[in-house]
TrEMBL record:
Transmembrane segments: none
Name of the protein in its database record: Sugar ABC transporter substrate-binding protein
Keyword Isomerase part of the UniProt annotation: no
PANTHER family according to UniProt: ARABINOSE-BINDING PROTEIN-RELATED, POLYGALACTURONAN_RHAMNOGALACTURONAN-BINDING PROTEIN YTCQ
Highest taxon of the lineage: Bacteria
CDD domains for the chain: PBP2_TMBP_like
Source lineage: Bacteria, Bacillati, Bacillota, Bacilli, Bacillales
Annotated signal sequence range: 1-25
InterPro entries tied to this protein: Bact_solute-bd_prot1, SBP
Region listing for Disordered, in residue ranges: 30-49
Protein keywords: Cell membrane, Lipoprotein, Membrane, Palmitate, Signal
Amino acid sequence: MKRNLAISAASVTCCLSLLLSGCGAGSGSASGGADKAKTGESVKPAAAASTSSNEKVKLTFWDENAGPDRTPFLQELIKRFQEKNPNITVEYVGIPSTSNKQKYDVAIASNDTPDIGGIMVPWISDFAAKGALLPLDDFYGKWSDKDKLSKGLIDYNKSLAPDKKLYQLPTTMYLDVFWYRTDWIKDAGLNAPTTWKDFFTDAEKLTDASKNRYGYSIRGAGGSIVQLTNAMYAYSGIEHYFGSDGKSTVADPKNVEFLKKYVGLYKKNTPTSDITNAYKEMVATFDTGTAAMIQHNFGSFNNHKQSIDGKFAATILPKSDSGKRITAPTANGYGIFKNTKHPNEAWQFLAFLLSADSQTYWNQNIGQMPTNSDALTSDYVKNSQHIQEGAKVMADKDTVVLDLPVYLPDYNNIMTQQLEPNFQKVMNGSMTPESFLSGWAAAMDKAKADYDKSIKK
């Protein structure tokens, strides 16, 4: 899977280099789209989003991460698409992130899938192996704007599927960062958490439990392992998820060292409630002034902007002692399900979501980075500190993209069903860091062995 790593690193660097150079592959019309998006005026969608048919068609669309921070903007995009295509109705179905994979699994098992829906990167291999998704290669190959998306991103997504076909097209990208209170850091005379030493120092020095103020907040519930993986490998500097011997590097002594220090913050420099905090609760601790720092990705930017505008900033997770910065960019998007009775209309909607104007509107409202090269020239991108920070990091020769084994069909289930509850046991002291990481490594080793065996058949 080292080939996948090279593709992923190249694709992300290609996209982010556009931010640094200020140029794009297209006409640069996305800036105008961004201005219109702010006022709610309609914007010109991709040419492929138009239809000449008068047939009345209804599409069901599943949003895999529904909530007040995202739903209104997808509904606005649906409204714009329907105005352009009055014969197509798109029914929006919002699924909370806490139950999204379960909802999809049940739908696939019962053969009751939507026409189109949000597909996270770790799901591509699983859904493709189950035959749930429609290959997009033919649609994408004939799409007039296909050169606006990085070839590296497309090739990487193909590499995740057992048959190497294209099943998901990304509309947004993000990296993990430490969001931190710039005012607290300044008032305390501390450094921003741009090194691991400063991070742990800040977490300690900014804690004043008597005032209900803590230096950090740990995500202890849903989604905890994604963030833990990114932080752990960033600290250890280990460049590959599986070593040259084919075994997982998760239980490496440097990862054990990090986990002990990290969990040592719990209840001392973090709120006690962290053990049950998922995304919303963790973000709230930061935005309400309870925590000085949290780890998340670009996606929570607008939450912080609404609550503490001018008092926060982001830094990509620090370099390790080796001098390498290990990071794991993610590019999520949408796929069409094989059971759809309207593949052409579903593609029209997907092409609309992929357009520069749609991507600019969508990403500026959720605080993430577009994948369309024209959208990368928008004013939103140029003026976003966290995205510019990401661009500089990805252009750094010492940055290494971690080759997460998201191609393993069991990857997501291991993360959510085994590791999330076990991480809470580590936090409450009923499981040791060594035992937790050993069990994690064993599960991934078995998943890889099963996968390797299956592809040899």
